[in-house]
Write a structure and sequence with these properties.
Blueprint (H helix, E strand, L loop, with lengths): L30 E7 L5 H11 L2 E7 L2 H10 L6 E2 L3 H9 L12 H6 L2 H7 L10 E13 L22 E4 L2 H11 L9 H14 L3 E5 L2 H7 L5 E5 H10 L3 E4 L7 E6 L8 H11 L2 H11 L6 H6 L3 H4 L21 H17 L1
Parallel strand pairs: 1-2, 1-3, 5-6, 5-7
Antiparallel strand pairs: 4-7, 4-8, 4-9
């Protein structure tokens, strides 16, 4: 996911940052080392976990999957719980970096996570052995109804010249190529050189119309009316609509990415038992609700969904869409080292134009 600016939860957590945690006494009982996206958890839930279990949470943050992976792969930092995205979990499984989970020790993970989300997870964790869904969502188009008067239902509007300098694109290789590949009718997991070249050419043609390539800034720019259209994650779209009711979110007819971020336990986790307790605690209905209300990314926790008091949110087509109503939906797959190199090479061509 996805995908807010990494902000330290300083002064809130009863734990030190894990920077350089490889040199700490990470094997002590009563601790759990957590590595998560920035601003991707309600800090109060960490305090509650510590108070209820007596286990100290040592918390560190990353801002991209790609920044997280080499730190974990190097083994220099022994984390107990990590929250990667779908394709990165697949890569970590392929490279033998994760251990199988014992769901008997995590009853909330078995009872409260909807079956459809575990089914979705099979795209990257085929036997549901390594991951527990934490947040999920879609990627779509956010537009300002005061600036865009026509119906919005296709990625093609991002190539419309009348919105020149009013279009925000994701500054992310896979997300940007997803948009172009879907526009062209291809799979967003394509490794076909001709299809990717076609998508690259489309992105280059679009570039003069783009105001900025952004990640987290899209929500602030759209809230402030600085752009007419932007590519955004559904969780951020929920937040932006709270701040600016003129904004609308749509899933384009060509299809999009349905993403999922999940809890995993690395092979070298020093505190497996505490890791399982942490994951199970986060799967409690009331705790999952707190995290959903704090970060606004959709929860796969059906117990938490049932506890949502705001009927508009509980029935939100952004937060909890009926995915059967859409076509062309996919989840990112790990494309291998050659696939990564191909995408990165083509993205460099786009950015250099």
């Amino acid at each position: 996911m996805k995908k807010l600016v990494a902000l330290l939860l300083c002064g809130v957590l009863a734990a030190a940052s894990l920077t350089g945690c490889g040199s700490s006494e990470s094997g002590e009982n009563g601790e759990v080392y957590v590595y998560n996206w920035g601003e991707y958890i309600d800090p109060e839930t960490l305090t509650m976990f510590e108070e209820e279990t007596g286990i100290k949470v040592v918390y560190d943050e990353f801002d991209t999957n790609e920044a997280m992976y080499p730190k974990v792969a190097a083994g220099s930092s022994a984390y107990d719980v990590i929250c990667p995205s779908d394709y990165m979990i697949e890569k970590m499984i392929d490279n033998d970096l994760l251990q199988e989970l014992n769901f008997d020790n995590m009853p909330n993970a078995k009872a409260n996570i909807g079956a459809q989300y575990y089914e979705q997870s099979k795209a990257f964790d085929p036997e549901n052995k390594y991951s527990v869904p934490y947040c999920w969502g879609t990627v779509g188009i956010l537009y300002n109804t005061n600036m865009v008067k026509e119906p919005v239902n296709s990625w093609s509007i991002l190539w419309d010249e009348k919105y020149a300098d009013n279009i925000l694109m994701q500054s992310s290789v896979r997300d940007a190529f997803m948009v172009a590949l879907k526009l062209k009718g291809y799979s967003m997991n394509s490794v076909d050189a001709s299809e990717l070249t076609d998508a690259k050419d489309a992105l280059i043609a679009q570039k003069p119309l783009v105001q900025a390539y952004v990640i987290d800034q899209v929500r602030d720019k759209m809230i402030g009316g600085e752009a007419a259209i932007g590519v955004i994650y559904s969780g951020e779209a929920i937040y932006t609509q709270r701040e600016n009711p003129d904004l609308e979110y749509v899933i384009p007819k060509e299809g999009t990415n349905v993403w999922i971020d999940s809890w995993v336990i690395p092979k070298n986790a020093p505190n497996r038992e505490n890791a399982e307790k942490f994951i199970d605690f986060m799967c409690r209905g009331d705790i999952a609700l707190m995290n959903f209300e704090y970060i606004t990314y959709s929860t796969p926790n059906t117990a938490a969904q049932a506890l949502i008091e705001d009927e508009d949110i509980r029935n939100s087509k952004i937060a909890f869409p009926d995915l059967s109503q859409y076509s062309g939906l996919e989840t990112f797959s790990y494309l291998g080292e050659e696939g990564d190199e191909l995408y990165n090479s083509l993205w460099k061509e786009v950015m250099s134009e």
